[in-house]
């Protein structure tokens, strides 16, 4: 009976340990890297938000990521805010409407919050309470809209959320005529979840969908510096837009390559045989 050389057994132990360590690393870190959503914390959430709202897309009040905004308006007004969203994020919009005293109202009202992308395409909500009816004696009404994950790139015919500006529009869609013009207080909030490379679709946009970004880029490329503030400054994340080429799928690719190499070496060590038996002379 021939014994396995110690060196061969040591190599097998080392390869087995490395393979198990790599598998453990991927299985434990995988969900946190690829699909584990974690709420993004933005310093803007601690800053005082704007106290007014726009009345059209062009006059929409800018919100930073994670920032809240308030406004005093009249029932029947269209209120607009705009905020940036980048690839790999899933934005959530929440709105609270403080209604007038019940004694001043004549009946129920229905409120609605809509979200539009930089091309002013209405984006569907994955879930939430986008439209709600307020009873005649209700003090407030809560609205919410959780958007689909923002993709770095999409087909021209698709309606996928893309990096850029997102507009919030809040209004009442059903109201007794006698209640039009009553004062209301509004608060809107934005929050984000980072979803990671599990939702990356590959590719990238030439520019984010922000109004005026193409004009600003053309001016910079022509060398014509303008003294006016950049249009994209109000609609850009604090740490800038994602570059588009980096994704945590690279970690999975490298990790898979390392594991494949270790598995190949381990399989070769098992199938190559035990070499020359110890009792056979070297010259034979």
Automatic annotation (TrEMBL):
Region spans: Disordered: 32-53, 216-239
Keywords: Membrane, Signal, Transmembrane, Transmembrane helix
Transmembrane segments: 250-270
Signal sequence bounds: 1-34
Domain of life of the source: Bacteria
Name of the protein in question: Peptidase
Organism: Streptomyces parvus
């Amino acid at each position: 009976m021939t014994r396995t050389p110690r060196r061969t057994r040591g190599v097998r132990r080392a390869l087995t340990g490395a393979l198990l360590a790599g598998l453990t690393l991927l299985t434990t870190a995988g969900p946190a890297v690829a699909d584990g959503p974690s709420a993004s914390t933005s310093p803007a959430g601690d800053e005082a938000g704007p106290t007014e709202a726009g009345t059209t897309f062009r006059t929409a009040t800018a919100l930073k990521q994670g920032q809240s905004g308030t406004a005093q308006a009249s029932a029947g007004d269209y209120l607009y805010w705009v905020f940036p969203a980048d690839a790999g994020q899933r934005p959530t919009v929440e709105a609270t409407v403080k209604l007038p005293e019940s004694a001043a109202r004549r009946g129920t009202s229905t409120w609605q919050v809509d979200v539009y992308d930089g091309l002013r395409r209405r984006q569907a909500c994955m879930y939430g309470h986008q439209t709600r009816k307020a009873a005649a004696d209700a003090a407030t009404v809560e609205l919410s809209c959780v958007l689909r994950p923002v993709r770095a790139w999409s087909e021209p015919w698709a309606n996928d959320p893309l990096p850029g500006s997102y507009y919030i529009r809040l209004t009442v869609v059903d109201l007794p005529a006698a209640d039009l013009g009553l004062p209301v207080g509004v608060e809107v909030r934005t929050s984000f979840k980072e979803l990671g490379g599990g939702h990356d679709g590959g590719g990238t946009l030439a520019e984010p969908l922000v109004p005026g970004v193409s004009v600003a880029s053309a001016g910079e490329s022509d060398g014509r510096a303008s003294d006016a503030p950049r249009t994209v400054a109000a609609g850009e994340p604090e740490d800038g837009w994602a570059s588009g080429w980096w994704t945590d799928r690279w970690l999975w690719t490298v990790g898979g390559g390392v594991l494949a190499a270790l598995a190949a070496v381990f399989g070769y060590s098992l199938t190559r045989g035990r070499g020359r038996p110890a009792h056979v002379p070297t010259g034979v």
